[in-house]
Amino acid sequence: MNMNANKTALLVMDVQEGIVARVQDPDYVPRVSRAADAARNAGIPVVYVAIGFRSGRPEGSARNKIVGSLPPGLYTEDDPKIAIHAGVAPRPDEVVVTKRRVSAFAGSDLDVVLRSGDITHLVLTGVATSGVVLSTLRQAADLDFRLTVLSDACYDPDPEVHRLLIEKVFPSQAELMTVEEWVKAAG
């Protein structure tokens, strides 16, 4: 695979303390960290995407089944659980984008950041496969980004849903690789 470092970005999505606390795979964070280190070593920007709401969650509608069902105060700016997990913490010069919905693009300036950096290829990681990864993949494909999904750097609480998305849904819009395959290609 020809990876032009100037056109590719690795997205680390929703790998936040409160979300990762529910991940049942102890090797998940180290794999994401390995992908981030490989990206940095190859000159590929690492962009973090985090769910975050203002105090009182004014951007949350009761009509939104996911956002409306969150307990009060969860993932608001006062909640320490919104911090990026310490095992994959961004470096001071790396961009952290705050989103207000499931997709990394919804309610964020991600598109502006990517287009300003002349990014055309996104490498996706995140929790959950059926949430941020699926929603971001679909929107990014519609925005004409080239896509790669790091299958073992995505996690879903339902292993069957993860498998179905990775094997049946994502291949129509993205290249699928493991972290190890991508590390070798990026290096």
From TrEMBL:
Keywords: Hydrolase. GO terms for molecular function: hydrolase activity. The keyword Manganese does not apply. Residues 8-181 form the Isochorismatase-like domain. InterPro entries: Isochorismatase-like_dom, Isochorismatase-like_hydrls, Isochorismatase-like_sf. This is Isochorismatase hydrolase. The lineage of its organism: Bacteria, Bacillati, Actinomycetota, Actinomycetes, Kitasatosporales.
